[in-house]
Amino acid sequence: MSKTGAWLARYALEQIGVRWTFGIPGVHITELYDELNESETITPILVTHELCGAFAADAVSRVADGATIGALALVPAAGLTHAASGIGEARLAGIPVIVLTGGIRRDMPRRYQLHDIDQLALAKELTKAAYRVLRTQDVVPTIFEAARVALSGEPGPVLVELPLDVLLFAGEVGALPTWTAPIPSSFAEPDAIVRAAELLSAAQHPGIFVGWGGRGAADALAQIAERIGAPVATTLQGLASFSHDHRLHAGFGFGRSAVPAARNAFAKCDCLLAVGTRFAEIATGSYGVRVPAQLIHVDINPAVFNANYPAAVTLAGDAKLVVQSLLRQIEPRASKDAGARAHRLSAQIAADKARFQAQWLAHDSAGRVNPARFFGELRSRLPDDAMVVVDDGNHTYLTAELLPIFPGGKLILPTDFNAMGYAVPAAIGAQLVHPDRRTVAIVGDAGFLMTCMEIVTAVRLQLGIIYFVFQDGESAQIAQAQRLLYRRAPCTKVGEINHQALARATGAAWVPIDSDAQSSAAISEAFRLAAQRRPVIVQIAIDYSKMTAFTKGTVSTNFRRFPLMQKARVLGRIARRTLADVRSSVTHQAKQAKAAKA
Ligand SMILES: Cc1ncc(C[n+]2csc(CCOP(=O)(O)OP(=O)(O)O)c2C)c(N)n1
Ligand SMILES: [Mg+2]
What we know:
The chain is globular, with a radius of gyration of 26 Å. The protein is built from 22 helices and 20 strands. The longest helix is centred in the last third of the chain and has 34 residues, at 564-597. By secondary structure, it is α/β, with parallel strands linked by helices. The protein binds thiamine diphosphate and magnesium ion (MG). Residues 391-395, 418-420, 444-447, 470, 472, 474-478, 494 line the site of thiamine diphosphate.
């Protein structure tokens, strides 16, 4: 039969189970958009900026649990470079995304065509693999191969360039293949699983650390935790990988940057079971964790083993399968004092969590909104299965430390690539996948400015997403660290924006929260407005005067690692600038007093 590349690409995407593509059409890819427009199962979504399209596609994959995969349909070069940060985010976070781009015509020898750039070279660092299709009959097999690579092992984005002539012109193809999804597998050696079970059962102070890759293993991990009497900490990306209402859930991180419950519960850890984490910088608070020699490391990607911390046992494979095998080996073994330890730990964790919460609530927010009070109000209204989408900044770590996530709940955010601007568009992707689940975004005022115009798309799609914008007037996560180390915070004041006018301009609703007293009623109002399938911008006068455990711990970890001379230089600068600041303030006061007298 004779088919165009665009028809074949649509066929392949339908087979894979793609339900939405994000992007902006351009001349190289209008043929594909025309096909997608005809599809009964795929909806092409127009975005305002391809960066937002990439974040939305990433979010589709993150919340879909394998039911569908996020996809992009981009014009060559400019569409791809605009989408690059979102693709990079998916790459470092291990999120499958199908990136389809148009390409310059390969059937004519002209140079300097529109959008002519070597996209495969550009995609090299951003994707797991990149393909260019030169023949019509290769369209379906190549897209299937791309999807297989995207979904297997540690998932990731994959690019397929479809040159204009391939999309546009019909060519002969034979019988079309049908798609079969890759099956999760475990490569862990049975002996290694036994060894891991022995170590964990014999440990005096075992601990469990769960990342994004461990989310499918949560039930088996909860049973292991009880069986061996171990506290459970998560990474930032893996915040929702273990229920926060489990009595052994300790918190985010376990080292110097962790919340007190996790820091204390892991203080004597002598055997660590790490699942689906690669001990990256954020997960470890800039490597401020003490990892015991008896590390049992489970991951789908063997390249992460021994990269940052040497492992006593490595178990490669799908986390759910490996952890279930491990549980079967642990069950018959007697774990000494495990019951008593679990009991003691759970009491200590509960007390530490309560004290942490009380300290936050007691903090004087000087008339502004206390973060713990806000998150308490929000949590009390969120259903357990709500989806929380977070951006990158101080609000990220406040969310991680103050908003518990319960079974069935989702929390997605940028981590290792760490691109601000994620939350507004990612919430759109998440809400599309689960239209009946409450979706809320927590976003800083600077990050919000990067992508807030995408709310236009949320309005058009009638998505009742609530955007909680933490308005502190600056890029706090950076400014706080600058003030600690430099006593100055250049380039962190955020451009002023009238959120009410922005809401009007985009068609969203607007609700302000200026003080704790307004929180409860304002959040109720936001939920009421969102129920009318309309996005809501909630502008919050948040108080950032109390630092998160993460920021305090991480700044301290980094500083401790400075060579002695560098420490002296930095401390000297702080001292000089502090003195100069005191002097200038004294002079200023004296001048004012003089002026007042005169
Ligand atoms: C694309 C990008 N640019 C810059 C940064 C550096 N950065 C990390 S957090 C942050 C501050 C974010 O400010 P805001 O969105 O207001 O959140 P807040 O920290 O105030 O909660 C900055 C600038 C980044 N991570 N990503
Ligand atoms: Mg801010």
